[in-house]
Structure formats: C-alpha cells, structure tokens
Amino acid sequence: MKVDWLKPVLPVFQHVIDTAQQEEWLGHKIRIATAESLIVTKLVAFRRQDQLDIENLLAANQGQLDLDLVRCEMEPIAELDDPRLVQFEEMVNQFYSES
C-alpha cells in the first residue's frame, strides 16, 4: 500500500496536517487528510494525475465538500486568475453538484 508522507514545507500543508481526521486502521490510529485538504494539495502540485484525482474527489463527494474552504486555503498561494484555480472552477462546474 502506498502512503503519502507530508512534510509541511508550506503553511497550507501544516493546515492539512492540523485538520486531518483520526481513524483506526489495522488496529492502529492514523490521521487521514480531509477531501478538501487533498484537493488543496493536488491544486498546489497540479500535475495531470492530480487533476484527475481532483475530478474524482469532486464526483465522489457531490454536495458534501466545503469548496469555499478549498478556495480560502488557496488564497495565499494563487491569484484568482491562476490557471489552476480557473481550471478548478471548471472542474467544479463539470463534476460537482451542490444538491
């Protein structure tokens, strides 16, 4: 099993760690990032696989995500016209339903 280990180089990554939810897995307590935090980390990197992952997270969590939190977390990193945020909004329109 592949596990992503996150070292908080950017302040946004520290927030991902701070908001991670504790779960039990194979008898051990582990912390798992929220879907919103995963989207933020993937927006930072924004490789093709990250873009696909964002689309999948949006589709799988329709109506359940705090997208304003994602936008707020990205404010210190990217301007509103940043291509990553522009494409994110297009993904939201295409893959996410607020209902």
The parts where pLDDT drops under 50 for at least 5 residues are none
Structural class: mainly alpha
**What is the string of helix and strand elements?**
HEEHHHH
Tally of contiguous helical segments? 5
**Main sheet: strands, sense, barrel:** 2 strands, antiparallel
Cα gyration radius (Å): 14 Å
What percent of residues adopt helix (DSSP H or I)?
40-55%
Describe this protein's structure.
With 99 residues, this protein is mostly helical. The chain has one domain. The chain is 54% helix and 10% strand. It is built from 5 helices and 2 strands, in the order αββαααα. The protein has helices at 11-18, 35-45, 48-60, 67-74, 83-95, and strands at residues 21-25, 28-32. It has a two-stranded antiparallel ribbon. The protein is globular and about 45 Å long. The termini are far apart.
Give a quick precis of the structure.
With 99 residues, this protein is mainly α.
Walk me through the topology.
Layout: H1 11-18, E1 21-25, E2 28-32, H2 35-45, H3 48-60, H4 67-74, H5 83-95
Antiparallel strand pairs: 1-2
Helix pairs in contact: 1-2, 2-3, 2-4, 3-5
Give the tags:
99 residues; mainly alpha; 54% helix
